[in-house]
Specification:
Chain lengths: 154, 269
């Protein structure tokens, strides 16, 4: 076991982990943060996307030990008390989800995308979210939600 | 889909990493992990020790080095994409890096990891071969420089010795370069890709996924040097290649694609 200390959604957490423990399972099983989903398990679908030091990563392809000393943000950590995050609000208003399984990953990938490209074109949005798959194929409304979030200054 | 167990050590310096590699013959280096971790999850590889060099921030840089650009091995793909020095002097590196995986992958994956992995579908492997880059490695007896032409020994095999760490990639400044890739789906590996650049006044061309290692299209280069048109030079693309047949396409299809991409790349130079 390896001792790690990291900040998750603003709270300092310390834990003993097996080196092979993947970040997504650490978040879900050890911290109980089940908003981050496991989809494909093969670095493809992006359902497990979280922010690591502010940048989107697929948490199924990061060992928890690699996040030692880092700041991790999951979908549970972005709303401000009772106010949804701008990106969450936009996904809600634009009906950017069908079954919702991919949604936490899309929301986190969108936050990272808008940080790098505050006013993306439709093409940049589609390219910028290529690491996230929606098996309901609800991409049109997802793109509209990202555009709405950008307009709202996310 | 959980990797087999392993020991973990975080190296505080390259020399410490070299020492740690010496203590376990099944040890592997972990940088961004985006080639290694997927393979470990499938249990295609089961290292007994991972030596984590991901925190060696002194290997994350892009520097002007006279007539060359020096890139630290731990520079991430996303950093290559937005680097102004590369955009000015070796733009095809940023172009190629922008097409690797997806944004999440580019936030973690590193140029050194990608090259040291030795995957024939690696975009950056083809770039260094095309540019005749120099690869700097440090091992127990110090540092050595490996020409890119001697680096790729076979599929997933490189010239790096077991205890060597790739530390720097040195590329020439080039006035023109292009990287064209065809992939079947978003975030996929290249079915085929082509790099072309003017290096010291000469056109050099490289191929991705056309054999067990990144390849140079030497016949094409000779034809261009002899004054052939892009179409005539591109007709020699398949010389010396052995394109694989797999789910992404047959060898014949790859050879066709490569020829088309080489012609387009030469027209764009």
């Amino acid at each position: 076991m390896t001792r790690i200390a990291l900040t998750v959604n603003g709270s300092r957490r310390e834990a003993d982990v097996e080196p092979r423990q993947l970040l997504v399972y650490f978040l879900r099983e050890q911290l109980g943060l089940k908003g981050t989903n496991v989809g494909c398990d093969t670095t493809s679908c992006g359902a497990c996307t979280v922010l690591l030091d502010g940048e989107s990563v697929k948490s199924c392809t990061v060992f928890a030990v690699q996040a030692d000393g880092c700041e991790v943000t999951t979908v549970e950590g972005i709303a401000d008390d009772s106010e949804l995050h701008t990106v969450q609000q936009a996904f809600h208003e634009q009906h950017a989800l069908q079954c919702g399984y991919c949604t936490p990953g899309f929301v986190m990938a969108t936050i990272s995308l808008l940080k790098e490209h505050p006013n993306p074109s439709e093409e940049e949005i589609r390219q910028g979210l290529e690491g996230n798959l929606c098996r309901c194929t609800g991409y049109h409304n997802i793109v509209r939600a990202v555009q709405a979030a950008a307009r709202a200054g996310a | 889909m959980i990797p087999a167990g392993f020991e973990y050590a975080r190296a505080g310096s390259v020399d410490e990493a070299v020492g740690l590699l010496g203590g376990d013959e099944d040890a592997k280096l972990l940088a961004g992990g985006h080639s290694l971790i997927p393979l470990m999850r499938l249990r295609f590889t089961r290292p007994s020790l991972l030596v984590d060099i991901g925190r060696l921030d002194d290997l994350r840089y892009v520097r002007d080095d006279g007539d060359r650009i020096a890139i630290g091995a731990l520079t991430r793909h996303a950093e290559l994409v937005r680097d102004p020095l590369l955009a000015q002097h070796c733009a095809l590196i940023g172009e190629a890096a922008a097409g690797i995986g997806d944004p999440q992958v580019r936030h973690r994956g590193t140029i050194g990891g990608s090259i040291a992995h030795g995957d024939p579908a690696s975009d950056l492997g083809t770039i260094v071969v095309t540019l005749d880059a120099e690869l700097v490695a440090r091992g127990p007896s110090g540092e050595r420089t490996i020409p890119a032409a001697d680096f790729f020994a076979g599929m997933f095999e490189t010239a790096l010795a077991r205890q060597e760490v790739l530390t720097e990639i040195r590329v020439p400044k080039v006035p023109a370069g292009v990287y064209l890739k065809v992939e079947r789906r978003a975030q996929d590996w290249a079915t085929v890709a082509v790099a072309a650049a003017r290096v010291d006044g000469r056109v050099q061309v490289g191929l991705t996924s056309m054999g067990p290692t990144p390849l140079r299209a030497r016949s094409v280069e000779e034809a261009v040097a002899g004054g052939a048109s892009p179409a005539d030079a591109a007709a020699r693309t398949a010389d010396g290649t052995s394109p694989p047949s797999d789910v992404s396409g047959s060898g014949e299809y790859r050879a066709h694609l490569a020829q088309v991409l080489v012609r387009r790349a030469l027209e764009q130079l």
